[in-house]
Specification:
Blueprint lengths: L3 H18 L8 E5 L5 H10 L3 E4 L2 H8 L7 E4 L8 H4 L5 E5 L2 H13 L4 E6 L16 H8 L5 E7 L12 H13 L4 E3 L6 H6 L4 E4 L1 H4 L4
Parallel strand pairs: 1-2, 1-8, 2-3, 3-4, 4-5, 5-6, 6-7
Helix pairs in contact: 1-2
Length: 221
């Protein structure tokens, strides 16, 4: 089994090649290592390998894993945020990817203001209009983006999406392209798209964050 360091090297090379194919600077793409289910020892191995940004799906797991020290790394919440976890998430995560309602946005902003900080966030868009996934609809996204821009406790950086599950990475391309088109129309230029099975296509379509778990850490038990 490959170690994390070798996997990181391989994934980084693939990101760089995809960036060059689309005439992009590889340094514009940030790898978010999805460390859900991984023990702190594996995270430490990843940090030693040079990985600087980690993504967690659940607030409490992240708190348990990273409370003692972040080890100089940045931490992103890439899973859905329940309203009863807002107070724990705000300020603990450097970036929250999954804001999909004005109620959640207002709660995050209120908590950030209370702490005298500004919380960086993304709007999650349900590009495939799937009832089983979170995210604001494509049609409602412009309204939500503009409403969030009025909240003083938030710094809105861009959009995030999880496309429908497909067997061929190329089948995800239209969803990535649609998200980028939507973002650009709203004056947003940063996009959290692409996972282990399709991140090269996502990079070609403008990803600025790719969320990589299996390709770095292997299948979870």
């Amino acid at each position: 089994m490959r170690g994390v360091a070798q996997a990181f090297c391989d994934v980084s090379a693939r990101i760089a090649h995809a960036a060059k194919r689309s005439d992009r600077d590889p340094s514009d793409i940030c790898l978010v290592a999805v460390s859900k289910g991984m023990p702190r020892e594996v995270v430490n191995e990843a940090i030693a390998a040079g990985i600087e940004v980690f993504g967690e799906n659940r607030v409490q797991e992240a708190v348990d894993k990273f409370s003692d020290q972040k080890g100089g790394c940045a931490l992103h919440l890439i899973g859905s945020l329940q309203t009863n976890k807002v107070s724990k998430a705000v300020g603990f995560f450097d970036l929250i990817h999954s804001v999909d309602s004005i109620r959640l946005a207002e709660m995050i902003s209120k908590e950030a203001v209370r702490r005298s900080i500004v919380q960086s966030v993304l709007v999650q868009v349900n590009v495939g209009d799937e009832t089983t996934k979170g995210g604001v609809s494509v049609s409602d996204a412009p309204w939500l983006v503009e409403a969030m821009r009025q909240l003083s406790g938030l710094k809105l950086l861009g959009l995030m999406a999880i496309p429908p599950r497909v067997s061929d990475p190329e089948s995800a391309r239209p969803y990535f392209a649609a998200l980028r088109k939507l973002g650009l129309s709203l004056g947003l230029y940063q996009f959290s798209i692409g996972m282990s099975g399709d991140f090269e296509v996502a990079v070609e379509e403008g990803a600025t964050w790719v969320r990589i778990g299996t390709a770095l850490f292997g299948l979870r038990g």
